[in-house]
Amino acid sequence: MALAKSDAGQKQIVTDWITWTRADENVPFQSRHNLAISQSGNVVILTITNTGLRQGENEISDPMEVKRYNTLLLNEVVDGLNRMRNLSENSATSNLQGIIDVQTGSDNAGLPVIIVRAPFDVVWDRLPIALESVGMKMGDRTRSKGSIEVTYKGLSSASWSTLGVDKPTINEGDYKLQVGDLNNRSSLQFISDKGKPLTQSENDQMVAAMKAAFSKPIK
C-alpha cells in the first residue's frame, strides 16, 4: 500500500491511489483513504474514510461503492495485523522451544553476568528446566523483581559429560539468581548467600553450563 502522507503525531495515514484488480472488471477501481487511530479506554479505534474513488477517468460517488472499498481496505489492514501477530507468536514460540545462545558479559559495575540472547519472558519461562538440568533446585521466585532463590547440588560426572561441559567449580549451596531484562536479551547473575557474585572464572563456567542447558530444544 503506497502512502501519500503519514503523521505519527496526529495518528493519521493518507494513502495514495490503491488499485483493486478484479477478474470481472476490465477497468479496475482505484481508491484513496484516510486512516485515523484513536483510543477510548483500553479500546483502540481505527477509522477509515474515503477521500477518492474512481474507475478509469470516472469519479465514483455511489455511497454503496464507497462503503465497499472502505470495507475492502479495512479487511486488508486486519489481515496484515493478523499476519504480523502470527509472525510475532511464531518467533516467540521458536524462542520458547528452540535453542538459545548464551554468552559471558558484565553489568554496569563491571561484575560478571551471563547474557542469554532471548527476551525476559522467554528466559523466565525456560529457566525452571534449564536450572534443573545443571543441578539447581528452584525455591521462591518473584517475576516482577526478576529474583529466583536456587540451591545448587551439582550433577554426577556422567551427567556433566552428557551435557558436554566440565563440572563447574562453584560451591554447592544457596544462591540468589537475578534475572535482568535487556529488551531482546536477558542477564543472569548468581549471588551467593553471603552476597557475593560469582568470580569471572566461575561465571564463565556457568556460561558453558547454561549454554548447554538452553541448547536443549523443548519438545
From TrEMBL:
Keywords, alphabetical: Lipoprotein
InterPro entries hit by this protein: BamC_C, NlpB/DapX
Tree of life domain: Bacteria
One Pfam short name: Lipoprotein_18
Gene3D superfamilies named in the record: 3.30.530.50, Outer membrane protein assembly factor BamC
Protein name: Lipoprotein
Native species: Proteus mirabilis
